[in-house]
Every structure is written in structure tokens, then in C-alpha cells.
Write a structure and sequence with these properties.
Low-confidence stretches: none
Number of strands: 6
Radius of gyration: 13 Å
Strand order of the largest sheet: 2-3-4-6-5
Shape: globular
Distance between the termini: 29 Å
Structural class: mainly beta
Length: 107
């Protein structure tokens, strides 16, 4: 889990297959605390699976994990609760800026 982890939305998952990522989204389905469906910051549904149950999740979460070969599913390693109010639209705009300016402090 060491090293760089790209911050992604649903559209950028496929470009990060087999790489560690950080995905922020709204939990829309949590049947068993092991299989989740999130609406990513860009509104795309993303399936996340964990080896261990992730109980006590808030409405909005940050998932650190690895993108599977299908480019639409994430194997989750860890979650961070972001609370019941989170502006996914603003976060998605920040992701777009990060893509546009990947190294803003390097000449």
C-alpha cells in the first residue's frame, strides 16, 4: 500500500488497472459490509469488494484499493468515513484540476 495512489473517479478507473487508487463516493448499496456500490464523484457506479467487513460506514467514504482487470471494480483495502455531507461535484472538479495540472509546483 506504499507509494503513489492516484485519486480517481469512475471515468478514470480503466486507466488505472492493477494500480493503487483512492476513490471517493457515496455509498448507494451495502448489502453485507463486504460488497459495496458507490456513486463516484462523477456519478458513475463503482463496485468495491473487501476481504473484511467494513461496518459503520458513513454516507460518503474514501476507499483506498486496487483497480481490478475489468476497469470498473476496486478491491478495497481501507475506508475512511467522510460523513453525511460531502460535495462530490466540487471534489470531481478538484480531480479534473489535478489531471490538468499534475505537477503544479515543479518547473
Amino acid at each position: 500500500m506504499e507509494g503513489h495512489k492516484a485519486r480517481v473517479n469512475g471515468a478514470s478507473l480503466a486507466a488505472n488497472v492493477a494500480r493503487p487508487v483512492v476513490l471517493v463516493g457515496e455509498v448507494v448499496e451495502n448489502a453485507d459490509d463486504v460488497q459495496l456500490t458507490l456513486n463516484a464523484a462523477d456519478g458513475q457506479p463503482v463496485h468495491v469488494s473487501f476481504e473484511q467487513p467494513q461496518s459503520g460506514l458513513s454516507k460518503f467514504v474514501e476507499v483506498t484499493g486496487e483497480v481490478r482487470e475489468d476497469g470498473r471494480t476496486v478491491t478495497g483495502w481501507v475506508t475512511t468515513n467522510l460523513g453525511e455531507n460531502f460535495d462530490l461535484g466540487m471534489y470531481n472538479q478538484a480531480l479534473q484540476l489535478m489531471d490538468q495540472f499534475p505537477a503544479p509546483f515543479h518547473a
